[in-house]
Structures are given as structure tokens and as C-alpha cells.
UniProtKB/TrEMBL annotation:
Protein name: Peptidoglycan-associated lipoprotein
SUPFAM superfamilies listed in its UniProt record: OmpA-like
PANTHER family from the UniProt entry: LIPOPROTEIN YIAD-RELATED (PTHR30329:SF21), STATOR ELEMENT OF FLAGELLAR MOTOR COMPLEX (PTHR30329)
GO CC list: cell outer membrane
UniProt domain OmpA-like: residue ranges: 67-182
Keywords: Cell cycle, Cell division, Cell outer membrane, Lipoprotein, Membrane, Palmitate, Signal
Topology class, membrane: Lipid-anchor
Signal peptide: 1-28
Length: 182
């Protein structure tokens, strides 16, 4: 009986010692003040939020630059020969680039403005400006741009780029302009 009692006492001491060691390691882990952990978490969260905000701002800037480049491409004019409304090869190339942009931005709408130089009557130049706008419009539609995203208007000779009366000015004024409408 004494042997069993001693065995029980020794077993309890070993168990108590083992429990004491376990507690000491837990206590070592909890030596860090709770506020330090909370401060580290708050700092980490603030850094993550700042990083997220920087990434969002960079993405916004990239998107704004892409839209500005798209509008610049859409804004490129095409020019025509005297009393003509057929598209020259360089005009077709410019319109193909516009079609690509319009396909990339399906919500973008464009107004095609037909213009003429000041030779000819006002009525004739209004009709010629309309035929020029129609040429660009039809070519864009053939390239797959939905017609409902395009509109056209003729200004005839009423909005010259260059008001001079010489061949250089007239060449500048025989054109189609493209305006982003939405």
C-alpha cells in the first residue's frame, strides 16, 4: 500500500512538473503585450489598404490614358480631293484604325462631320459635305461598326479650318472630322 501511495505521489509530481513546463511556454508566448499585436495588425492593414489604393489609382490612370489615346485616334481627320467624296487609301487606313477603337469601346458613339472648301455654292457644298460624311460612315459600317453608334452631319463650307483662299487652305478644309459623342 505504501508502494502504491509513493507511486501515486511520484506520478502526481511528474504530472505537475509537466504541467508547469507547459504553462511556462504558454506564458512565454503571452509575454508580448496584447496592444503590440493589435498595433502590428493595424499597421499591416493600413499598409495593405495603401497598396490597394495605389494599385487602383494606377489602374485608373492607365484606363484614362487608354481612353485619351482612343479619343485621339477617333479625332484624326480624313481629307478629300477637290470636289470628291471617295476615300483615298490613307483615309481608309485611318478609318480602319477608328473601327478597331470603336470595337474596343462598344459604348463610344461618333459624329462624322463633312466639310468643304469655300468654292462652289453653299447648297452644293452642304451636299458634298454630306456625301463625304456618308463615305466615311458607310466604310465604318462595312468594317463592322454598328450604324446606331454613328451619326453624320454636313457643315459644308461654314466651318473652315483655314479661312485663307489658297490651295493649302482649301486642302485643309476638304475633310471629315470625327467627334466622340459619348
Amino acid at each position: 500500500m505504501k508502494a502504491a501511495f509513493r507511486f501515486l505521489v511520484v506520478a502526481l509530481m511528474v504530472a505537475g512538473l509537466a504541467a508547469g513546463l507547459g504553462c511556462s511556454s504558454k506564458q512565454a508566448a503571452s509575454d508580448v503585450p496584447p496592444s503590440a499585436t493589435t498595433d502590428d495588425d493595424a499597421k499591416r492593414r493600413a499598409e495593405e489598404e495603401a497598396l490597394r489604393q495605389r494599385q487602383l489609382e494606377e489602374q485608373r490612370q492607365r484606363e484614362a490614358a487608354a481612353i485619351a489615346a482612343a479619343k485621339e485616334e477617333i479625332g484624326r481627320m480624313i481629307h478629300f480631293d477637290f470636289d470628291k467624296y471617295d476615300l483615298k487609301p490613307e483615309a481608309r487606313s485611318i478609318l480602319q484604325a477608328k473601327a478597331q477603337v470603336l470595337k474596343q469601346y462598344p459604348n463610344m458613339r461618333v459624329v462624322i462631320e463633312g466639310h468643304c472648301d469655300n468654292r462652289g455654292t453653299e447648297e452644293y457644298n452642304l451636299a458634298l459635305g454630306e456625301r463625304r460624311a456618308n463615305s466615311a460612315y458607310e466604310f465604318l459600317v462595312l468594317l463592322g461598326v454598328p450604324a446606331n453608334r454613328l451619326s453624320k452631319v454636313s457643315y459644308g463650307e461654314s466651318r473652315p479650318l483655314d479661312p485663307a483662299n489658297n490651295e493649302v487652305a482649301w486642302a485643309k478644309n476638304r475633310r471629315c472630322e470625327f467627334k466622340v459623342a459619348g
